[in-house]
Write a structure and sequence with these properties.
Layout (H helix, E strand, L loop, with lengths): L1 E6 L5 H10 L3 E7 L3 H10 L4 E3 L2 H6 L5 E4 L3 H13 L3 E5 L6 H14 L3 E4 L6 H12 L5 E11 L8 H17 L5 E7 L9 E9 L2 E8 L1 E13 L3 E5 L7 E10 L3 H5 L3 E9 L8 H15 L7 H19 L5 E2 L3
Parallel strand pairs: 1-2, 1-4, 2-3, 4-5, 5-6, 7-10
Antiparallel strand pairs: 7-11, 8-9, 8-15, 9-10, 11-12, 12-13, 13-14
Helix pairs in contact: 1-9, 4-5, 5-10, 7-10
Length: 337
């Protein structure tokens, strides 16, 4: 059995506990939080889990094989580094770190000691995203032309990070998984309305080259909740609506056809195509259960997880570039692969 300690029992930590307790080949040996009341509530439900307020005590326990860190972003680097140096495998809540160089250091530590470093990019593990990846890789959409992402809702406001670092990692990690490379450049705009130092509305534009552009809208102030991703291709297009419980994915055989000859292109002769709409059936599996299973399987098999440290580093690089662009009033920030 892989014995795991969950660090942080705020919003996300208890979800990790439940899923690791249900994961095959794993158990939660300990939980750590600075608030004894959180520990008490959890131990009433899971009396076999040891409660700790000391992270040092968790790291000193040789029976603990891995830690899952669900604490504020600013603490990720220090806690993950100490865990890796103590010989533990590490799962970190998104984003991996608040700085690019910190992410690089964690990757080097994990590789040096043969430890698994995984980021909880939970939506990448969603069955719907797995199906979108399958469709994109099959070539059914043709060449990707554009990606539009919207993740907006009313709250939850964060006090330590802005809306970009809070919400954008979800969709950036999905697009990173689908495209498989860093963008060439990032431009971003943001505005702060509630807290003058923390942006609560932001727009990101990513240029991937080869005609592919991706736009992201993240927002804590929207009166409605929207979670949608549109992929436009040269052959077909796809909409992933995470809030649609019956048809999360719809593939549209609709688009434009331009004449192949040069004269047709000069005259912009376009034919519009309107065909069928297809919605694939999806397995009824929880994304976080898949995260837990992949983390455990990676430890047991000595392999890289789907959302490994490198995936986390790429997302942090984009977030860092977006933040610098916001501070420079939308100045485009280049990213080299």
């Amino acid at each position: 059995m892989i014995r795991i300690a969950v660090i942080g029992l705020g919003y996300w930590g208890p979800n990790l506990v439940r899923n690791f307790m249900d994961a095959e080949g794993a158990t939660v040996a300990a939980c750590c939080d600075l608030d004894p009341r959180r520990l008490e509530r959890l131990c009433r439900r899971f009396p076999t889990i040891r409660a700790e307020t000391s992270f040092d005590a968790v790291l000193a326990d040789q029976a603990v094989d891995a830690v899952a860190i669900a604490t504020p972003v600013g603490t990720h680097y220090e806690l993950a580094k100490r865990a890796l140096l103590a010989g533990k495998h590490v799962l970190v809540e998104k984003p991996l770190t608040a700085r690019v160089d910190h992410a690089e250091e964690l990757i080097e530590l994990a590789d040096k000691d043969g430890r698994v470093l995984m980021v909880d990019h939970v939506f990448v593990h969603h069955p719907a995203v797995a199906k979108v990846k399958e469709i994109v890789d099959s070539g059914r959409l043709g060449r990707l032309w554009f990606i539009d992402s919207v993740r907006i809702n009313l709250g939850l406001f964060q006090s330590d990070v802005n809306v970009v670092w809070d919400l954008a990692p979800h969709d950036l990690s999905i697009v990173d998984h689908l495209v498989g490379r860093l963008p060439r450049s990032v431009s971003a705009f943001g505005a702060a309305h509630v807290n003058p130092d923390i942006e609560d509305v932001a727009y990101l534009n990513l240029d991937y080259g080869d005609g592919l552009v991706a736009n992201f809208h993240v927002n804590w102030l929207s009166p409605v909740k929207v979670r949608s991703l549109i992929l436009g291709g040269s052959e077909q297009s796809l909409i992933y609506n995470d809030l649609d419980n019956s048809e999360k994915i719809k593939v549209y055989n609709r688009g434009v056809e331009i004449g192949a000859d040069l004269e047709s292109r000069r005259k912009v002769l376009v034919n519009y195509r309107s065909g069928d709409v297809w919605s694939p059936n999806l397995p009824n599996e929880g994304a976080l259960a898949r995260v837990a299973a992949d983390f455990v399987a990676s430890i047991r098999g000595g392999r890289r997880p789907l959302t490994d440290g490198q995936a986390g580093w790429r997302v942090v690089r984009i977030l860092d570039a977006a933040q610098r662009s916001i501070q420079a009033a939308g100045w485009r920030v280049g990213l080299s692969n």
